[in-house]
Amino acid sequence: MAVTLADVAARAGVSAATVSRVLSGNYPVAGATRSRVLRAVEELEYVVNGPASSLAAATSDLVGVLVNDIADPFFGIMASAVQSEMEPEKAGGKLAVVCNTGGSPERELTYLMLLQRQRAAAVVLTGSAVEDPGHAEALAARLRRLAAAGTRVVLCGRPPLPEAGGDGGQGGGKGAAGAGPGGTGAPLTVAFDNRGGARRLTEHLLALGHRRIGYVAGPAERTTTRHRLEGHRAALADHDRDHGRDLLTEADRLTVHGAYDRSSGYDGALELLRREPGLTAVLAANDTVALGVCAALREAGLSIPGDVSVAGFDDLPFSADASPSLTTVRIPLHEAGARAGRLALGRESAPPGDVATVRTELMVRASTAAPRTD
Amino acid sequence: MAVTLADVAARAGVSAATVSRVLSGNYPVAGATRSRVLRAVEELEYVVNGPASSLAAATSDLVGVLVNDIADPFFGIMASAVQSEMEPEKAGGKLAVVCNTGGSPERELTYLMLLQRQRAAAVVLTGSAVEDPGHAEALAARLRRLAAAGTRVVLCGRPPLPEAGGDGGQGGGKGAAGAGPGGTGAPLTVAFDNRGGARRLTEHLLALGHRRIGYVAGPAERTTTRHRLEGHRAALADHDRDHGRDLLTEADRLTVHGAYDRSSGYDGALELLRREPGLTAVLAANDTVALGVCAALREAGLSIPGDVSVAGFDDLPFSADASPSLTTVRIPLHEAGARAGRLALGRESAPPGDVATVRTELMVRASTAAPRTD
DNA sequence: CCTGGGATAGAAAGCGCTTTCTAAAGCGAG
DNA sequence: CTCGCTTTAGAAAGCGCTTTCTATCCCAGG
Known about the structure:
The structure is a homodimer. Chain A has 13 helices and 12 strands. By secondary structure, the first copy, chain A, is α/β, with parallel strands linked by helices. Chain A folds into 3 domains: 5-48, lambda repressor-like DNA-binding domains (434 Repressor (Amino-terminal Domain), Orthogonal Bundle), CATH 1.10.260.40; 60-192, Response regulator (Rossmann fold, 3-Layer(aba) Sandwich), CATH 3.40.50; 194-330, Rossmann fold (3-Layer(aba) Sandwich). A 6-stranded parallel sheet of chain A has the order 2-1-3-4-5-11, with helices on both faces. A 4-stranded parallel sheet of chain A has the order 7-6-8-9, with helices on both faces. The interface between A and B is large, with 60 and 59 residues. Chain A binds a DNA duplex through helix 2 and helix 4. Chains A, B: Pfam families: LacI, Peripla_BP_3.
């Protein structure tokens, strides 16, 4: 039905082997022959059969990118950056496959299985991990298998995996977990400095004079949430130590958890206001949540930053445009994604300790100011 | 190196054929045999070799989704909806491959070529098309070839292709353009009623009493831009006819073009203000552009909607949250994407005339109001 | 007790490509 | 003018799976 290598070979008056060599370009072919082949390819509109090629060569030009929510620019930016490194137009270029897990660990495993089935060249996992030990172990096992199968695994924006727990059990599995081609076994990691960012953000609020600071945090079970919370508390603890205060114990009461969406911010802010009407500042899990917080505060008749300061996290494109513009912690998502992409392609060597941390940066804008002196 | 079908067959004490049948499930296998095979699969942690499977079966479980900008929720929502129809966890499930073209027609062709190489089961093209005749013909040719190769082609949010131009030329190509399996030849289309939406939006402003309406339109060469502009002008023309006015001739002067981003809105609004300081309303190419328009107007000391009304297009999630909340034209992106996904899978039969139009809906919010009576 | 047919499983022929291994030229050196 | 090397191209053996074709087994019906 479709045009095959043999057809091209016949037309060019050469063997199939020669055509293959011309197209892959990793073997010397005389100039005249080469151009004869290329002409035949043109004339017949030949397109390589990818599956056949992958089967024979035992390689694939697919790179999987797992994201929690493709409709969220946070992930869109990273995915776009990963993809920008793939050079699909070039001969050895890769095709990035963006898979939307919806944040579900089960779906994540499903996609990883499908990617393994496709013998993907690499897999990039973005987004925060769920801390449930069962899921974590299942995920680690799957990633180990992928690595053993020669797929490069890169984590982007999630913490490095814990060391292998169980011994993997039965079956005379051969490779001692991933000395496979191009895999160091342990996944490469591009980590965000969430702790440091949250810490600097809280320090900023403390320096402005805020003492009653609410926190609308992300889902309780995700690593990112925990890290940001830890940074926040570390700043409070430092402050307590230096000033003999006790903000840290208050922090529990002033923290609520929700999803990474606007309504969580809205609801969270109302709940915080209920718990502590004297609130002067609210930290949000991310910028989207911060927008919800702002909406709730405004509806409660509070001005920002006049009555309450609000700060977000991530610095998405819309954050600078919000009114008031959001104080937030910038995560260089594009840079991180691009780096993850290069690691996935093996174009950049693994960072020391296999973990590259990208710095976060405090962006002070209009939504935070000193509290009213009452 | 890796576990193969033969290994599983040996372990289960059956033939490779039987294992294949158990896994694909489209052939009767006795219960006892079946469970013996499944146990062997478990024990050996067998994962099917996708390329081999695709080669032998001459099918693939890849579905390509082309988007202009993956970081833009407009496309993210559609992509997510397409993906939600794929059921990757099921046996016959598909793997959606989201490809970011960056709006470049060349990259679009590159991705289509790669997807054809992978023998993708279907391809969904989202986003507006470029109207350049050269590109349009190249694209149409590529899509024809895809269809001829048995790949289902679905257009989502772009107009149906023009009828085949050239006759395709040389080579005794067989199929008369795509009576291939499951392809009707002509791509299936899910179209947005951009004209109608723009028309109703303009009518809304006219009804409020606006007469000097600026338009910060999208890139001049894209179909979507043209359609929205046509709707806008149709409304103006109707008004002129009924009221003996001449708003239509003014429209040219009050239209500027830009990209689909915030800064285009910002710059565009400033330019419009320069051309017509007495502007009472501004339409934007989409909601992101509208935000830029709002920012520019505000910096110019104008209040929204007090001095100038602003309206967008698309109704992205952030639009209701902006302050003031944006009047806009809602495009049911999720619904459209899901439908495109179903068409791609052949789970929904083709619409009459192969074009399904999804309705757009005017969302009147706080950013539009009657102009000041001066 | 024999036979025909349904149910189940195996043998084997590819699918279209890559890649050794091998052969045929082409060319300088002895 | 021949020998041995390099350069270039073909032959053919898979890669791991699917699927047709065929063989076997078992049971009901005659």
